[in-house]
């Protein structure tokens, strides 16, 4: 339970800070002029070469947090360092250490892939020979060598994404920020893209901060994940620890009386955390699949349309934290 | 040049590439002024004669067309900013290690290059059609200053609007409204004194009026435009005053464009 709390997050941060840091975020806040508190005191650190996931529902504060990391959103409080450089006063130096892939395409569609990459190289201050060599190398890695001189407008969505990843890595950044990089892509292209990102990551040793809605992706690629909601950090740890903290398994009960099932004393007795009720589904986190559950499962089956016992996933952690954050608060108290 | 400053030539080159890919738009912008030089100007000169001795009316009108072309080109360039904003590269530029002003400044410099080339073409065409131009090494800079400052003023307005206006369909009608309408009030086709008194007062504060007076002073020699604005005797002194007025407009418009770009890309 404790590893699901922000308190344990700080312990994780402390551990990461012992290593060389790619990013350090301390007590970051953002209040927009209309009074919206988008980010409320978030702290975390990302080590060199680490893959760090930023997860949360829509409006949780992920984009604002990434915006403050990239310097496009001014923090209302706190501090952000990238590669040991403060984002605000030393923005150019800090930005030179970053490559960013945005949620939507930011390529010049009228220009060729090579022209897009050359522009990036010039903006990031690369020498011409270095840029030419690196462009050829990266186009080859992302499988676009043959289409390098074609206008980007003729590219598919997957090709454009691969080009944007190549562009973000062109100037050998220390930090790669990926904001929903696979949104809108089909599953095969998504898988190919992640395989490419992870290959480039392991070759270059670059730290990666990724924001994604695809939790199975985050579970498989991230060294650590942070779950944010309503501008607050709810949890930060390795996916495995977070899953283990929720419990090894979940009982899903589909029923017309979800509140009644969730409120049963025998359910509460085995639940490691408060059950989550969504529509007609009750999810009860439990320690492990255990033979002692058989009697309870059998009884629940009499009261519901289906009962499933399965291993818990990061998706369960996410749902428990974001859908029932107050439940966890209550459980802690 | 540091990497921070190299952003401006990089963005200038980018805008030039994109502009050349839409060369038909640049040719289209020339259609109306060229028609004036080839057909309308000579016809009006023939029909109406001149309004002052010593001033060739066709030359007067032909040079005045530059006050139509330059603002139109500058305003039209705003559409590319909207395209960048809605479908293009602006987010990438906001995380690049370059200052925020690099984008509007590089755009403005490319539009200025286009406007100077177009203005030069207009002079060549006018001369070929029989205009009597009269310039010198000392007077040509007034022509360049008039074109440059008018272009930067209008481009500053265009870029500011392009960052504020949500869609191209909304921006489109503003091109003739802002870029072209004042051309009819600035003494480009007829002298200021032929306009109603209250419009004359308005005209004297328009950047178009100062620009067209400078353009004519730099390319035609004696011109009543500067005297109509300032009512002084020294032509160089009046030209300096008009340059100062235009410089204030240009600086203000560009500063506003940078501010708008910064505000819309940093929350």
Task: Please give the radius of gyration of chain B in angstroms.
Answer: 19 Å
Distance from N terminus to C terminus of chain A (CA atoms, Å) equals 12 Å
Tally of DSSP β-strands of chain B: 0
SSE succession of chain B: HHHHHHHHHHHHH
Largest interface: A-B, 31 and 29 residues
Q: Which spans of chain B have pLDDT < 50 for at least 5 consecutive residues?
A: none
Radius of gyration of chain A: 22 Å
- Main sheet specs of chain A: 6 strands, mixed
> Residue-averaged pLDDT of chain A, rounded?
81
Determine the number of helices of chain A (DSSP H or I, runs of at least 4 residues): 14
Approximate shape of chain A: elongated
Tell me the CATH topology of the largest domain in chain A: Rossmann fold
Q: Termini distance of chain B?
A: 30 Å
DSSP summary, beta strand count of chain A: 14
Average residue-wise pLDDT of chain B: 86
CATH superfamily of the largest domain in chain A: P-loop containing nucleotide triphosphate hydrolases
As for the number of domains of chain B, it is 1
Summarize the structure.
With 333 residues, chain A is an alpha/beta fold. Chain A has helices at 6-18, 62-70, 91-96, 113-123, 128-141, 157-170, 187-204, 215-221, 239-246, 258-262, 265-270, 294-303, 314-323, 325-332; strands at residues 21-31, 37-47, 51-55, 77-82, 85-86, 98-101, 175-179, 207-211, 224-229, 232-237, 249-254, 276-278, 281-286, 306-311.
Write the layout of secondary structure elements.
The complex is a heterodimer of chains A (333) and B (267).
Chain A: H1 6-18, E1 21-31, E2 37-47, E3 51-55, H2 62-70, E4 77-82, E5 85-86, H3 91-96, E6 98-101, H4 113-123, H5 128-141, H6 157-170, E7 175-179, H7 187-204, E8 207-211, H8 215-221, E9 224-229, E10 232-237, H9 239-246, E11 249-254, H10 258-262, H11 265-270, E12 276-278, E13 281-286, H12 294-303, E14 306-311, H13 314-323, H14 325-332
Parallel strand pairs in A: 3-8, 3-9, 6-7, 7-8
Antiparallel strand pairs in A: 1-2, 1-4, 4-5, 9-10, 11-13, 11-14, 12-13
Helix pairs in contact in A: 4-5, 4-6, 5-6, 6-7, 13-14
Chain B: H1 3-21, H2 23-48, H3 57-64, H4 66-87, H5 90-94, H6 102-128, H7 140-164, H8 168-171, H9 174-179, H10 197-203, H11 207-220, H12 224-230, H13 235-265
């Amino acid at each position: 339970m404790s590893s699901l709390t922000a308190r344990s997050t700080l312990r994780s941060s402390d551990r990461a800070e012992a290593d060389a840091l790619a990013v350090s975020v301390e007590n970051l806040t953002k209040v927009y002029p209309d009074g919206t508190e988008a980010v409320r005191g978030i702290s975390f650190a990302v080590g060199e070469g680490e893959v760090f996931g930023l997860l949360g529902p829509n409006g949780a504060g992920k984009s604002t947090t990434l915006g403050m990391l990239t310097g496009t959103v001014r923090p209302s409080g706190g501090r952000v360092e990238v590669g040991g450089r403060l984002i605000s006063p030393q923005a150019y130096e800090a930005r030179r250490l970053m490559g960013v892939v945005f949620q939507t395409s930011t390529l010049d569609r009228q220009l060729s892939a090579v022209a897009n990459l050359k522009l990036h190289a010039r903006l990031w201050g690369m020498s011409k020979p270095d840029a030419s060599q690196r462009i050829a190398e990266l186009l080859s890695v992302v499988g676009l060598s043959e289409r390098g001189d074609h206008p980007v407008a003729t590219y598919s969505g997957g090709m454009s994404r691969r080009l944007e990843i190549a562009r973000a890595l062109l100037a050998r950044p220390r930090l790669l920020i990926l904001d929903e990089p696979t949104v809108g892509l089909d599953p095969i292209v998504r898988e190919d893209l992640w395989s490419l990102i992870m290959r480039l990551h392991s070759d270059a040793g670059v730290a990666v901060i990724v924001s994604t809605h695809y939790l199975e992706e985050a579970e498989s690629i991230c060294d650590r994940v942070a779950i944010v909601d309503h501008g607050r950090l709810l949890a930060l740890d390795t996916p495995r620890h977070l899953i283990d903290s929720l419990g090894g398994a979940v009982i899903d009960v589909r029923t017309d009386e979800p509140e009644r099932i969730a409120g049963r004393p025998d359910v509460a007795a085995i639940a490691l955390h408060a059950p989550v009720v969504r529509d007609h589904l009750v999810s009860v986190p439990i320690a492990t699949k255990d033979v002692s559950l058989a009697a309870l499962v059998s009884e629940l089956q009499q009261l519901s349309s289906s009962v499933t016992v399965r291993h818990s996933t990061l998706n369960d952690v996410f749902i428990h934290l974001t859908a029932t954050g107050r439940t966890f608060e209550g459980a802690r108290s | 040049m540091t990497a921070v400053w190299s952003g401006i030539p990089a963005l200038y080159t980018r805008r030039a590439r994109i502009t050349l890919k839409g060369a038909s738009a640049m040719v289209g912008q020339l259609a109306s002024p060229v028609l004036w030089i080839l057909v309308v100007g000579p016809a009006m000169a023939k029909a109406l004669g001149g309004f002052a001795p010593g001033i060739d009316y066709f030359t007067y009108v032909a040079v005045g067309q530059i006050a139509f072309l330059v603002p139109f080109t500058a305003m039209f360039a705003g559409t590319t900013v909207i395209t960048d904003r809605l479908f293009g590269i602006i987010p990438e530029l906001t995380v690049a290690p370059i200052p925020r002003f690099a984008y509007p400044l590089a755009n403005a410099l490319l539009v200025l290059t286009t406007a100077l080339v177009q203005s030069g073409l207009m002079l060549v065409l006018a001369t070929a059609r029989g205009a009597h131009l009269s310039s010198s090494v000392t007077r040509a800079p007034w022509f360049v200053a008039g074109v440059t400052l008018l272009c930067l003023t209008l481009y500053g307005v265009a870029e500011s609007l392009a960052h504020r206006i949500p869609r191209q369909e909304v921006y489109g009608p503003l091109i003739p409204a802002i870029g072209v309408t004042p051309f009819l009030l600035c003494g480009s086709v007829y002298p200021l004194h032929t306009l109603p008194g209250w419009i004359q007062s308005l005209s004297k504060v328009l950047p178009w009026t100062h620009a067209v007076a400078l353009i004519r002073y730099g390319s035609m020699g004696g011109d009543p435009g500067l005297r109509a604005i300032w009512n002084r005797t020294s032509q160089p002194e009046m030209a300096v005053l008009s340059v100062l007025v235009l410089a204030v407009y240009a600086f203000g418009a560009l500063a506003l464009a940078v501010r708008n770009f910064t505000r819309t890309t940093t929350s």
